[in-house]
Amino acid sequence: MSEQAIFEHNAPLPSGDGSDGVVHWHVFRDPDLARQFVPSIRLSEGQILVGGRTEDSVGSLWWLGVRVDDIERWGNRRALNKHAASD
After folding, report:
1. How many whole angstroms separate alpha carbon 23 and alpha carbon 53?
2. Residue 52 in contact with residue 63, Cβ under 8 Å?
3. How many domains does the chain have?
4. 1, 16, 46, 84: which could join 27 in a potential S-S bond, CB 3.0 to 4.6 Å?
5. 0.70 exceeded by the pTM?
6. Which residue range forms the structural domain that includes residue 61?
7. Cα distance between residue 34 and residue 46, in whole Å
8. How many CA atoms lie within 13 A of 84 on its CB side?
9. By three-state DSSP, how is residue 11 classified?
């Protein structure tokens, strides 16, 4: 999936417990801000860019994250990190 196509499909926010392999993610209310953030993500071996769009009680959300191929090798599940960006 291309980096920009990531926002064209619905995907729930990461679980937050590492069970989905997503260890770091950012949430945006503005899709343009999410697209602008893509180039700042640097991936290492065993990591892929994931994301999508979803919504909450306030409105639409777009998110980007990093999924690792082996959460146990990655490290501490309590070190999961998420960021919400404001408009």
Report:
1. 18
2. yes
3. 1
4. 84
5. yes
6. 5-84
7. 23
8. 7
9. coil
